[in-house]
Amino acid sequence: MTDVSAHDQADLDEILSPSAVADPYGFLERLRASDPVHWNARYRSWVLTRHADVGAAMSDLRFSSDRISPVIQRERRKERPDLDLVETLELLNGWLVFRDPPEHTRFRRLVHKAFSPRIIAAMRAEVERIADELLDEARDRAGADGAIDLVQEVAFPLPAIVIASMLGVPPEDRALFKNWSDDISALVFGAMEDPDRHDRAQSGMAELVRYISQLLERVSVEPGEDLATALVQARDGDEALTQEELVAICVNLLFGGHETTTNLIANSVLALARHPAQADLLREEPALINKAVEELLRYDGPAKAVVRLAAEDVELGGRTIAAGDRVFLMLSAANHDPEVFDAPHELDFRRSKGAHLAFGIGVHYCLGATLARLEASIVIPRILQRFPSLTIADQELEWNPVILTRGLRRLLVRLDG
Ligand code: HEM
Fold first, then answer.
1. Cis omega (within 30 of 0) for bond into 338
2. Closest CA to 132 of 354, 320, 378
3. How many angstroms separate the alpha carbon of residue 8 from the centre of ligand 1?
4. pLDDT in tens, 310-332
5. Measured between alpha carbons, how far is 412 from 141 in angstroms, rounded to an integer?
6. Which range is the signal sequence, renumbered to this chain (predicted)?
7. What pLDDT sits at residue 171?
8. Spatial contact of 209 and 247, defined as CB atoms under 8 Å apart
9. Packing angle between helix 276-284 and helix 369-386, nearest 10 degrees?
């Protein structure tokens, strides 16, 4: 084990210090170099930063994804448990991403029948239409100085409209989805210090669940061509998704695909504005787009970390991760590990070596990866072509101070330089 002094230890615990939030890569590099299997005293959690460890832990079922059940049990054991909170947590607990095999295996197989790469590929024309519409509106709304908030105008609405449209939500109801998704994200990704996050999540979740349940009832009686119908009809032999699973997966898809894709779009536009030579390369060689999206996911991807709970004692790097301990698997650190990527802090669309972990790996590998890639590969080239002299107008960037995601509160851009 690396010897880390008490002073350094305290410093390395500052995972949410302003400088580590602004530049997680520099912070995580120091952590990987000095203490790659790090016990973070502040968050009482392990923090893994090497690509090899992060990838191995995600494929190792001794690291469990069932991390909501213990919170529910703790709340229930209290003298006066918050029963509304327990109800919200139980809904969350039904999400695919929080289930372990074998339950997860059956659940995912059924969902995959409906949310298949073929169905996603069929969305191309619709995603193109939505992207064009949002970019037209953004241009019309630009202020006298030509500035817009790219998050609010494009990156935030695009994925919400796409998934709502896939599920068969009518256009007039789509704004509701954006608000609920925001409320729930306060609980799942939120700053641990945010005192209102439970209340906001509870009301958002309750309204969303009511809406989704009605949508599912409707398509059971009047099937459509949408994803909600495909999920209701998904069969594997005699098996079908239960009513609870149907609600849970719709919420999980809506939610899982929203903030992440928003951040991918905004982080990518920022990276391109800061690397004009790479932006020019992509304009000149549009066929590079798929490689560019992979590199943008690696370079400054939306998921900084995923969480696991050790189901049993695990020895790693000379340390013992004890049963029940929480572990942060730092995807951002893995994606900048010099053992795997040459010059990891450079943005290079011609990079050929190394596989990033931005969508995870193993049984929980992102179910929406094909959709996220499709959305990014459609909207990014359109932004580059339409606004060739786009510049960042923010003097200082405001990153959300959370451990799990990497996202900007806003991104003010001047469309015409
Ligand atoms: C760039 C955008 C995205 C990123 C970076 C991302 C990242 C991830 C990661 C890292 C995981 C693994 C979580 C874990 O191992 O605990 C995951 C799982 C998941 N993602 Fe995504 N995601 C994105 C977009 C989407 C979209 C668009 C959808 C759906 C519409 C989606 C739905 C899901 C679901 C349902 C899971 C759980 C899969 C399972 O547990 O089997 N994601 N995502």
1. no
2. 378
3. 34
4. 999 999 999 999 999 999 999 99
5. 13
6. none
7. 83
8. yes
9. 100
pLDDT one-digit tens code per residue, 119-130: 899 999 999 999
| 393, 289 Cβ separation under 8 angstroms | no
For the ranges 198-202, 228-232, 386-390, which has the lowest average pLDDT?
198-202
| Region label for 318, one of left (φ > 0), alpha (ψ between -120 and 50) or beta (otherwise) | left
**Token reading at 414:** 């001047």
Kind of pairing between the strands at 45-48 and 326-330: parallel
| CB neighbourhood size of 248 (10 A) | 25
Alpha carbon of 273 to ligand 1 centroid (Å):
26
CATH top-level class of 59-414:
mainly alpha
Residues 391 and 417 sit within 8 Å (Cβ to Cβ): yes
The domain segmentation of the chain, as residue ranges, is 59-414
- Give residue ranges with CB within 6 A of ligand 1: 58, 65, 96-97, 108, 163, 252-253, 256-257, 260-261, 264, 301-303, 306, 358-360, 364, 366-368, 371-372
For 295-322, the three-class secondary structure string (H helix, E strand, C coil) is: HHHHHHCCECEEEEEECCCEEECCEEEC
Q: What is the pLDDT of residue 286?
A: 97
Is pLDDT of 191 > 60? no
Per-residue confidence at 2, pLDDT binned at 50, 70, 90? Answer: very low
